[in-house]
Design brief:
about 290 residues; mainly alpha; di-copper center containing domain from catechol oxidase; about 0% strand
């Protein structure tokens, strides 16, 4: 059992240890394996194949296991490291300490949006993007998108999602009209507002956080640690509500074979969503 802390409460030494472990994982080549995995499992509901990671009920458990695997890789380098979380309802400015020189670094420069500050700046020699040719070789960001501003989600946005007692609902994809999963993932605002909560954070950061290989930006892990914490809060608020669908969908359902019920193993780990419902066996949030 270990703890995941709010990034704003980390000491300078804790930040340095986390950054050093991430950089070591990058040097080993394992970091890029995590990036490629996310790209592989980013399947949209426009595709006629199984969706484990996005636009699907297993969004939360899939990313919980994904973060656990990443965290375990970091802990093989430094056993005292865990993934901190970024509460973007509070630290909602490009001037927040999250973006300091000694932690995540700041926004990208004008023109090519290349991040020039912090340990993940390409010019510092430690962070080359290797996932896809189209991603370029350096980390990019456009915090807040100044030319067409977008705001991070608010506490009220999160509260509305947490108040929904239903985990997910048919058609079990980005068009699900209600449910905690789709509200937090951020698709169900209709055609004019399909960038809510989790999705809006990716858009606010911009740059490489906008694509399927978004873990190229290390802030991805802090963002998803907070998304995981929100799932834990929803579970505590609705103890009678469980993961849905609980049973495999009938063959007559258009989503059959595309979404994962509670006891259908998730790729690539062959672990069931039902085995990932209780985070407290691994870590706690402070």
């Amino acid at each position: 059992m270990y703890t995941r802390a709010n990034q704003r409460n980390l000491t300078r030494a804790q930040k340095r240890r986390f950054v050093d472990a991430v950089l070591a994982l990058k040097r080993s080549g394992r970091y890029d394996e995590f990036v490629r995995m996310h790209g592989q499992f980013y399947v949209t509901d426009a595709e006629d194949r199984a969706r484990a990671a996005h636009m699907t009920p297993s969004f939360f458990p899939w990313h919980r296991r994904y973060l656990l695997e990443f965290e375990r890789a970091l802990q093989q380098i430094d056993p005292g490291v865990s993934v901190p979380y970024w509460d973007w309802t509070v630290d909602n400015s490009p001037t927040s300490s999250l973006w300091a020189e000694d932690f995540m670094g700041g926004t990208g420069r004008l023109g090519d949006r290349q991040v020039m500050t912090g340990p993940f700046a390409h010019t510092n020699g430690n962070w080359r993007i290797n996932s896809r040719i189209t991603d370029g070789k350096f980390l990019t960001r456009d915090l807040g998108r100044p030319r067409d501003p977008v705001a991070l989600p608010t506490k009220e946005d999160v509260a509305r999602a947490l108040a929904d007692p239903v985990y997910d609902t048919a058609p079990w994809d980005s068009t699900a009209p209600r449910g905690f999963r789709n509200t937090i993932e951020g698709w169900n605002g209709g055609a004019e507002a399909r960038w809510l909560n989790h999705n809006r954070v990716h858009r606010w950061v911009g740059g490489l956080m906008m694509g399927a290989t978004s873990p190229n930006d290390p802030v991805f892990w802090l963002h998803h640690a907070f998304v995981d914490l929100l799932w834990a809060r929803w579970q505590a608020a609705h103890p009678e509500s469980g993961y849905l669908p609980a049973k495999p969908l009938p063959s007559s359902d258009p989503a059959a074979g595309q979404v994962f019920a509670a006891d259908q193993p998730l790729p690539p780990w062959d672990v069931k969503p039902s085995a990932l419902l209780d985070h407290s066996r691994y870590y706690r949030y402070v």
